[in-house]
Design brief:
37% of the residues lie in helices and 22% in strands. It is α/β, with parallel strands linked by helices.
């Protein structure tokens, strides 16, 4: 969800000044790939009991390889990712796909209602509307029951939410942190307005985590997979996942690290890292990025996965304003015979972002990338499934803002069974989308081309 409109002009002006004075380049992923080990035993597969032996790790990866068509995603890509992150690949997880806002909210409410020890919630936007108040009331109820609730919200994302909304939570014992306050007098250190917390994470009792692209707002409350009243606002189409198992500890680490960096109040003594039991068969890696020259890990993860894809790349993304490396990765994959399909919005809450995305269609289409635009919904999802075995769901958009300036988080799931569920969801969105055909696209009006070219000038700030 892009920045609230009344605040956008000021925000964009300050951000352009800030970014133009800072380091705004993305890493050269070709160099990262060249420097990574070409082949190695998986050295970071972790179970509920700790680090596995190389022999057990190898056996797990071989079983996974046999479940799908041969692909370098499982060996070379893994080696690249392990060279840039300490976040381990963790076995024994149950991953449930939450295909839209209704499913995600139902899962979140159930998890919160079942909480016994603590609830940690980190979100970009929490609005003072029906959905926001429903969440607030439930969190207050659990706090009154003795469950400690800790909340991080982004100051810019929740700019329109009135202060009394959060004060009500604080007054009843909920610990609340405002991430990087807009007001410099409230800043927790160096004031840097363009640094946003775009993550969406719910952690309950250290055993269940829900993450993805869904904020807390009524726009997610209706289903995007049915005919809508033309007079009603477009429903938002987004996706989360619920994860149970040992990898939840990695989400917890990210939350607590953000809490401490933002100088949040001392946390109550709770069992944030309980003993974990294996809950399923999925291998999961939690990939968190924060601004910094050496910490653009999600960008490297995406680039590497697309580079090593051999069969299919199916991407759904809300704000697709890629740099040249990402464009090259997509077009190169299509030219070598990979089935590359991308589903993008036909309508957006940011018209300039939509035009900037369309600027890239010509290059993609000429290379053989199949581009689709989702109709009857405002597409906000950030998901991908590659080669029938690699999938990701998270908060990261394919734009410069997400990749350079935000705190983001994605779950990367290695599981043939989960990839099948992702492909079903992708096919369902595809059926609700219109394919952009090159023969028609190249005939679009001149005014549209001018609008796209103008929007492209601002790509680094979208």
């Amino acid at each position: 969800m892009k920045i609230i409109k009344p605040f956008f002009s000021f925000f964009l002006f300050v951000s352009i000044l800030s970014l133009s004075n800072g380091c705004t380049t993305l890493p050269n992923v070709s160099e990262v790939i060249d420097e990574a080990p070409k082949a190695q035993e998986p050295r970071q597969i972790v179970s509920s009991k700790g680090l596995l032996s190389p022999q057990k790790s190898k056996a797990i990866m071989e079983r996974l390889e046999r479940s799908a068509n041969p692909t370098d995603i499982l060996e070379r890509h893994n080696a690249v990712v392990e060279s840039v992150t300490e976040s381990p690949l963790t076995k024994g997880n149950k991953v449930t796909l939450l295909v839209d806002g209704q499913a995600a909210y139902a899962a979140m409410f159930k998890a919160i209602q079942n909480a016994k020890d603590h609830i940690n919630l980190e979100t970009f936007i929490i609005e003072d509307d029906e959905s926001g108040r429903e969440f607030a009331d439930l969190l207050l109820q659990k706090q009154a029951e003795g469950v400690q609730v800790n909340l991080i919200f982004d100051s810019v994302g929740s700019f329109s939410t009135p202060a009394p909304f959060f004060q009500r939570l604080r007054d009843k014992g909920i610990q609340v942190v405002e991430f990087n306050p807009v007001n410099p007098l409230k800043a927790h250190g160096h004031w840097l307005l363009e640094h946003l917390d775009h993550r969406k994470i719910l952690i309950v009792d250290g055993k269940v985590a829900i993450t993805g692209g869904i904020n807390i707002s009524k726009v997610y409350s209706s289903t995007p997979f049915r005919d809508q009243d033309k007079k009603a606002p477009l429903p938002w189409r987004d996706t989360d996942v619920q994860i149970e198992g040992p990898v939840v500890a990695e989400f917890q680490k990210l939350f607590l690290d953000t809490w401490h960096k933002q100088k949040g109040p001392k946390l109550s003594e709770r069992n944030y890292f309980p003993d974990q039991k294996e809950a399923g068969n999925a291998l999961v890696r939690v990939v968190g990025s924060t601004p910094g020259q050496s910490n653009r890990i999600i960008f490297i993860v995406y680039m590497s996965a697309i580079t090593f894809a051999e069969h299919s790349v199916h991407l759904t993304n809300a704000y697709f304003i890629p740099d040249d490396q990402i464009l090259d990765a997509f077009t190169d994959a299509a030219r070598r015979g990979v089935d590359v399909k991308v589903i993008l919005p036909s309508t957006s809450d940011s018209r300039i972002a939509l035009s900037a995305a369309r600027y890239n269609y010509s290059e993609l289409l000429k290379a053989g990338v199949k581009v689709y635009e989702r109709r009857n919904a405002l597409l906000h999802a950030k998901t991908a499934v590659i080669d029938g075995v690699w999938a990701t769901v998270g908060s990261t958009n394919m734009d410069f803002w997400s990749l350079l300036s935000d705190d983001e988080v994605n779950a990367v799931i290695l599981s043939h069974e989960f990839a099948i569920e992702m492909e079903k969801m992708f096919a369902k969105d595809l059926a609700e989308s219109d394919q952009i055909q090159w023969d028609m696209w190249k005939k679009r009006p001149l005014w549209q081309k001018i609008k796209e070219a103008f929007a492209h000038l601002f790509s680094h700030w979208l």
